[in-house]
Protein 1
Amino acid sequence: MKVSVLGTGYVGLVSGACLADKGHQVTCIDVVKDKVDRINRGEPPIFENGLEDLLKRNIGTRLKATLDARQAVLDSDLTLIAVGTPFDGKVIDLKYVKEAARVIGAALKEKPGYHVVVVKSTVVPGTTDKVVLPILEEASGKKAGRDFGVGMNPEFLTEGEAISDFMDPDRIVLGGIDRRSQDAQDELYSAFEAAPRLRCNNGTAEMIKYASNALLATAISFSNELANLGSAIGGIDSAEVMQGLHMGRYLNPALPDGTRISPAINSFLMAGCGFGGSCLPKDVSALVAHGRALGQPMNLLASVLDINARQPEQIFRLLGKHFPTLAGRRIAVLGLSFRPDTNDMRESPAIPIVRRLVAEKAIVSGYDPAAREEAKHIFGETLILAESLEASLRDADAVILVTRWKEFEKVPGLLQAMPKSTVLVDGRRMLPKDSAPKYEGIGL
């Protein structure tokens, strides 16, 4: 198929590059010339494992980027809308989605043939049918279902693992206003034969995306609430509690030959210093706000957010066991991105942790293998950015592990080689609790 993709962020660029790798002719569209130029040189404007190789393999053959949205839509059979949907604390901001719909609609006005428009951006239920579709009809002067199709195809990509998630999907949700809109998407994903498919209307597809992220966020806050209770009681190791929970047959089912498998959701059923990123906080907040606007309180999900907002306080409770004041103490924060294998710092727990350390007049250094530039932008001169893991640990009174980068497995050994006795606060329970003489962990 000939495919155009509006938006070259994590979702748009990864989707476009992967679809090109599967044999489609793909044109990625953006309004920023520098991003378009970089993509056409095979240089990813975002940090994502495997993306550079994917671009270099397909740019100039099956993949290109352009500023000309009109021509890209005219030259394609199907357009994916993959623009950002920021959340302002009250509502999802649909200005980019609306503008994308207007641009596509204007191009459809000139196009004689049938075209399918598919929303891939995460939008609250009802948006595709009640916002995007009317704009397309108005801008094109045509009728949805007769002259063009409208669908909703949610993404289920994890930053740092987005390429593998797209290339080996666990499901493909084909939302659409009619069978023809769904059939076009089915053809788009014809190379993904093993992935189970679900056909549904657009509102259901939109809700599936929110339900997926809300479940993961709930699992994390559930784990953290139990861990905090265990800490208050004393003598309880929340990591072992979760290990025991994981062993239950619901979370550790047996195959016919007796082999046990551990579902991926178990990694979310583990205590830590809170979730972040561009998806979970925003999507759960948007769902809560959407329910409130409709007169439907979302009390469970509101509590999930409240627990998460307070979770970084546990780091300071653990530090307080060793330091009556943090003023003048050298504190190293390991991991600034919200998860490993990405440079994305949006809603990262590291942000409130660093800001409070600075407010309490600690001398704060930070280290992250990928998010150095993002940290400079957020913290400016208030955070000392170390060039290496070893440099970040040097002379530290305490080390706070915030992100599960594999490199941080070396921390206990590096601390043992240093003359100073350093407190290790493991905000992810990544390291063994006997890995350092002064070890403190969430839920321990």
Protein 2
Amino acid sequence: MPKKRKDGRYAKQVTIGLKDGKPVRKTIYGDTLKELDKNYRDFMSLKDKGIILAGKDVTYREIHRLWIDNVKKGTLKPQTLKRYYERERFINTYLGDMKPINIQKSHIEKIRSDLISEKMYTKFNYILGDIRSVLQYAMEDGIVLRDVSASIKRLKYEPPKRRSLTLEERQLLEGAAFTPIEKCFVYTLLYTGVRRNECLALTTDDINLKKRTIRVCKTVVPSNLEKNVVQEMTKTNAGHRIIPISAPLLPVLHAYCQDKNGPIFLTPTGHYYRAKTFQKFWREIINKMVAANNNRPVAEDITPHIFRHTYASDLYKAGIDIKQAQYLLGHTDITTTLDTYTHFGFLDVKLDKMEDYYNAVKKQSNGKIVPLKHA
């Protein structure tokens, strides 16, 4: 609302942007209300044409952080929010010290080129989405005139086909000279299908050897920015579940957990695995599979997720009902109703079907270690 000053003039304030997270305002004056209205309309016309911009000295780094804190913070799970901060740190290596009004399309294309060379197609698509949202946020505050990323398209690529472990690869797991923690981690992935970070969050309280069950109810947030935190929730709403312990896993868990109390998968220094320490941990597992394969290389796609896919395949081959499989895997699907999850429980899972299937696999392998062929 216009206000009359002591000197007789009329004044009106207009918010034109942000500076250090605070509104930047401009005062418009006029000797009469009619003149004030004209001066206001003239000012807004110049602003809309880009002749007047707010926050000319603000950097991209400041705007990006404002966008995360004001738009994303408080609406996301901790694990998801940490990914935004990690992508922010990467983007700032390219754009952080630049003024948003100086960012050109070519600067973003440079990021795209570098990530294509590293075959990080998905990472670029996420980063492009973040940059686009930040620039649109800056446009709304009058800091930039246009979104220079608008014409840059997301990368299209053919994702690698998911597969299960082969019989030969399963046999390598049995013959590898794993440490107790490595063996327990690998076998838990293979015979429960839990996600990597769900597995890393397991404690002795989650494992009931007498009832032969594992409770999945939390996940580790694997960030390199700070110490890991255990998130008292799983990736999806359907992630809270009880998984039966099959015969191949039972002795491994019993031997490894008998002298444990609390988290069972910790680093030698007693901490949860972070992104970099887990990479080293997993590299050792692969190296021991290579050694068991007479020092011949193993497939590059042997990641923790392939064990989850193998478990899903085992459920199918064992004749487990699809709804039971969805429960055991903690899957959520937009086409699946909430009823699917709320009316299904552990007591309906038939453990004997899995036992019969794993016994058949063991019989087929005859306990032999079969070296893989050269790639």
Protein 3
Amino acid sequence: MTGFGRTGRWFGVDAWSIRPDIVAAGKGTTSGYVPFGFAACTGELFDTIAPKGFVHGFTWSHNALGAAVAHATLRRLRDDGLVDRSRELGRACSKRSGESSESAEHVGDVRGAGMMIGIELVRDVARRRSRSPRERQITEADRRRCA
């Protein structure tokens, strides 16, 4: 969910000085157009596991069509600068959403990374109390106002 530019970086973990041992990805690899999944790991981990067999199959891994679509998708993300674009648009959207929400009755905060943005709905903005009970249907009312 946090991969392939959504957070304004190739992977969400890239925001910190972390290098994961294993990365698993699914439909984001092909932008959801074709089922596909993969797992990748560090060379050190592979060298440790390989003698016993590096079995990492997903339902849609090892699929030629999925691999071709994933390759095209990754190339498009890279060549068109879409990861950087996600970061730029995310900053602008977060800023505008934050400005728009200042007078909103139930918005406690707007936060996120890249185009992965969340709006915190609260019962009491001044005290930032948790969201009101579902029976009040605040989300639906806010959505109608945005339409």
